[in-house]
Amino acid sequence: MESIQEIEKTVRSFLEENMIFYERENSLDNDDNIFELGFVDSMFALSLVTFIENNFEIKVESEDLQISNFSSINNITNFIQNKRQSRVIE
Fold first, then answer.
1. How far is the C-alpha of 37 from the C-alpha of 39, rounded, in Å?
2. CA separation (Å) from 67 to 14, 42, 45?
3. CB burial readout 1-18, b (16+ within 10 A) else e
4. What is the pLDDT of residues 19-77, one digit of tens each?
5. Helix axes 73-89, 4-18, angle to 10 degrees
6. What is the C-alpha separation between 32 and 29, in angstroms, rounded?
């Protein structure tokens, strides 16, 4: 299983390669809210969920579909880590 740093790196790569309207001189900060910054549309949100499920082998459930889980690199990374830990416990 990947470390939290590896998860973060993978998520960052996906976001920076795929976000629409991404035209910043600096890289995306871990706490930048990608929804508030206007980088996410409904198609990208769907792609992000699919990416998370496929790359981290977790199932994003209906109750998981809260903006707070997907709004920043840190939140996405924590969401993935929490889902994986809860899967191990079950």
1. 6
2. 18, 12, 10
3. eeeeeebbebbbebbeee
4. 755 555 557 899 999 999 888 888 889 999 999 999 999 999 999 999 999 999 999 99
5. 130
6. 5
Asked if residues 16 and 44 have their Cβ atoms less than 8 Å apart, the reply is: no
Among the listed residues 89, 30, 86, 88, the one whose alpha carbon sits nearest the alpha carbon of residue 61: 86
Mean pLDDT of the 3-25 span:
82
| 8 A C-beta contact, residue 54 and residue 26 | no
The model carries a pTM of 0.89
CB 69 within 8 A of CB 80: no
Alpha-carbon span 47 to 89, nearest angstrom: 28
pLDDT at 89 over 90: no
The closest alpha carbon to 69, from 88, 53, 54, belongs to 53
> What's the rounded Cα separation, in Å, for the pair 38 and 78?
22
